[in-house]
Design brief:
Length: 367
């Protein structure tokens, strides 16, 4: 009888199995970490290289903002506000009425100026009539002077004749005396008539001057009336341009002074960017270079523009106490120069740029 021995597998302890699995997992984690580190290094090199290449050809700054036309709205006449026709942040058009001021005092000024004009026109008619009368009187005086001249010439001729006759005893001394007296009277009358004609001519000149003065007075009164009407038109304050009503500071019943800022209108078109670049970044910056910029209000949206101009002085030169780096009295600080960037993208109603928005700008200074 033969004996058969069966071979059974050797049992592995559970602790050894767990140890093997733990080691496998550790090796897997090390491999994963190594792969992730390698990928991260590759990504860092790739994106770092791209960023370095971008930086080498671009001048960047985050010291920039959107600029635009903001027009203050102020009245040209003083008075009480009767109506405010707009609300905060409302869109208005150029010339749209915004505020109405009580016009009653201005209407009275118009009435007064109109009455002054009517009075001046009446005075002109009177002056013209006086000129007509003065011319007629001057014509009569000139005619009388001519008659007197003829009479004086005749009596002078009679005296000359009678003097010759008296020398021949053809007439008496009494007759010669009468002729001489008549000649003297005629000469004196002619002198008086001549003075009257001169006075009448002077009266014509005076009357003509009065006509001119009255005409000038009419021009002055008409200018006063036009001015009063112009002031009346200012009782309605209108929008200087199209845009959004901002910083409204006026209510009905409020008394406002001429020149007092009541609100502002921010233009809804024509915005641009002013970027303050360091003076060390301007060596290769020129007008016409393309610009990419982002706005904090719209993350991920890239806008495009171009450099239009560089300011003629640093921004600090316009400060109340500008620094003077060259004198040695101040610590030298790198200055910034405002650069105007015009936007070349068409208006996008989904991404409206408003003055004051913060901007990150990058100018392509090398192709």
């Amino acid at each position: 009888m033969s004996t058969h021995l069966s071979s059974a597998p050797t049992a592995i302890p559970a602790t050894e199995v767990e140890s093997r699995e733990s080691g496998a997992r550790a090796r897997g984690r090390k491999i994963g970490v190594g792969i992730a580190a390698a990928l991260a290094a590759v990504a860092a090199l790739y994106f770092g290289g791209r960023h370095l290449a971008y930086v080498l050809v671009h001048a960047e700054t985050d010291d920039a903002q959107v600029e635009g036309d903001i027009s203050p709205v102020l009245p040209r006449v003083s008075g009480f506000v009767t109506r405010v026709l707009i609300a905060d942040n409302e869109h208005v058009l150029t010339g749209q009425p915004l505020i109405e001021i009580d016009p009653r005092e201005l209407d009275l000024k118009i009435a007064s100026a109109a009455a002054g004009l009517a009075s001046a026109e009446a005075a002109l008619e009177i002056a013209r009539a006086g000129l007509t009368n003065a011319r007629a009187a001057a014509a009569v005086a000139q005619a009388n002077e001519r008659v007197g001249a003829v009479t004086a010439a005749k009596t002078a001729s009679d005296l000359k004749r009678d003097s010759a006759l008296f020398a021949t005893n053809a007439i008496t001394d009494r007759q010669l005396t009468d002729t001489r007296a008549a000649a003297e009277v005629a000469r004196a009358q002619h002198e008086a008539l001549l003075r009257q004609a001169e006075a009448a001519a002077a009266a014509v000149a005076v009357a003509a001057a009065q006509v001119n003065a009255s005409a000038s007075q009419i021009d002055s009164q008409r200018a006063d009336l036009d001015y009063a009407r112009l002031q009346r038109s200012y009782a309605t304050v209108v929008a200087p341009m199209a845009g959004e009503v901002s910083h409204k500071n006026v209510e009905p019943g409020q008394y406002v002074e001429a020149g007092q800022t009541l609100l502002a209108v921010a233009s809804d078109s024509g915005v641009w960017v002013v970027a303050n670049y360091k003076e060390t970044q301007l060596e290769q910056m020129r007008p016409g270079q393309p610009v990419e910029f982002t706005v904090d209000s719209f993350p991920g949206v890239v806008f495009h523009g171009r450099v239009e101009s560089l300011a003629g002085a640093t921004g600090a030169r316009f400060a109340l106490l500008p620094p003077d780096n060259a004198s040695g009295n101040f610590v030298k600080v790198t200055q910034r120069v405002p650069v105007k960037i015009v936007i070349t993208d068409p208006p996008d109603p989904r991404h409206v740029l408003r003055p004051g928005m913060s901007v990150d700008a990058a100018v392509l200074v090398k192709d």
